[in-house]
Specification:
CATH class of the largest domain: Alpha Beta
Number of strands: 7
Number of domains: 2
Number of helices: 5
Distance between the termini: 72 Å
Strand content: 5-15%
Low-confidence stretches: none
Helix content: 25-40%
Structural class: alpha+beta
Mean pLDDT: 92
Order of helices and strands: HEEEEEEEHHHH
Shape: globular
Largest sheet: 4 strands, antiparallel
Amino acid sequence: MQLGEIAKIQFGLYTQPEDAGNTAYLQAKHFDEWNRVTSPLDTFINIDNKSKGHLLKDGDILLVGKGFRTFAWTYGEAIGPAVASSIFFVIRPDRKRVLPEFLTLIFNAPQTQSYFHTLGAGSSIPSIRKSELEAFPVALPPVEVQQKAIEIKKLHDHDVELSSRVMAEKKRLFQAITQNLIYQHNG
């Protein structure tokens, strides 16, 4: 089946963000190399009737459609009210057929990333057309299998977070020891 059969796809909002407002304006710069939102968010808009339809809903997927770094991320309400900038496609999956986090895993898979890069090849700034994204083939396993894949991803994310903390602590310890040795013998 094609993505357009199991999800609604729209473009993010093109507007000028501000330093303050009632809604976060998500841009590619707000995501780290692990596709996690970095905080604090520093660009905002004030929602009005024109932009109200762009408010993200729990489970919406943001997919970068322009540029050299393509990635997907699943929005959760814990972030607070947010809209996506125009660099993103906003994908609203039919949750009866596909779990948003599973679709995000598919989008971030190396094979899919390679496919997306071939779509944008040949232009100075690679971009994916909406029609190409709608035609993207998706093979869906049963929801139970989708859920297992999501749980494995969560375990992986937790492991990465723990590893990052361990590395930061090792760096702090190394610096403390070397500082102590340097200044102990220079005193």
